[in-house]
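Hi again,

Forgot to attach this to my earlier email, sorry! This is the prediction with zinc ion bound. I've pasted everything inline since the attachment limit keeps bouncing my files.
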Amino acid sequence: MNILVKQHKEEVFEMAITRKQIATAKAQETYKNHFDINEVRQFGDYETNLTKLVDDLELTVVNVDIREMFKDNDLVDKTTSGFLLKTNEEHMVVINKNQNLRRKRFTLAHEIGHYLLGHLSDVEFGLTCRNSKSAEGIDIEEIEANTFAAELLVPEELIREWHKANKSPRFLAEIFNVSESVINYRLKNLELI
Ligand SMILES: [Zn+2]
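C-alpha cells for the complex follow:
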C-alpha cells in the first residue's frame, strides 16, 4: 500500500473511533424516540420498522432501477445501492430496487444515517452514495452511516439479550431481518465472538 494512503487510513481510523461513538449514540437516540423497546419485546417483533421511521421523519423514499436510470451518464456509480439526495432543502432517499430485501433495509438505514447525521446539511444540492467503496473504511461519512445503520437495525441491547438465547448468526439474521454479515459485524464489534 502507498505510504500516503496508509497514513490516511490510519488517521481516518483514529478519527473514526470517536465519530463511530457519535453515530452509535445518534442511532440509539433515534431508536428511543421512535420505538418502544418494551413493546418490541412484548410483541416479539424485533425487526426495526423502517417504514414507520421514514413516515415519522417525513422522508421520501423511492425504489428505482439505478443501473437503468443512470446508464447514459456517470453521475452515479453503477454499483450504487442507494443514495440520499438533497435538492431545494428537500431530502429524498433513492434505493436500488435490484437488491434483496435485507440489503435494501440496510441501505435505507444507512441513508437515514446520512440524513440524521447531517451529512448534507451544509450544501444546497448534494448526494451521498452507498456503493462498492462504502465498505472500504476510507470515507469517514460512510463509516458513520454504516455504524448508524448497524445500531439502528440491530440494537446492542437487543442483540446482547438474543445472543444469550441463540448464538446462530442465521437465526439472529432472521430475528432482525438483516443479512448474516451485518450480524457477524455486530457480534464481532460487541466482542460477542
Ligand atoms: Zn453512504
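The pocket of zinc ion is lined by residues 110, 114, 128-130, 134, 142, 145 (CB under 6 Å). The CA atoms of residues 79 and 131 lie 5 Å apart.

That should be everything now.

G.
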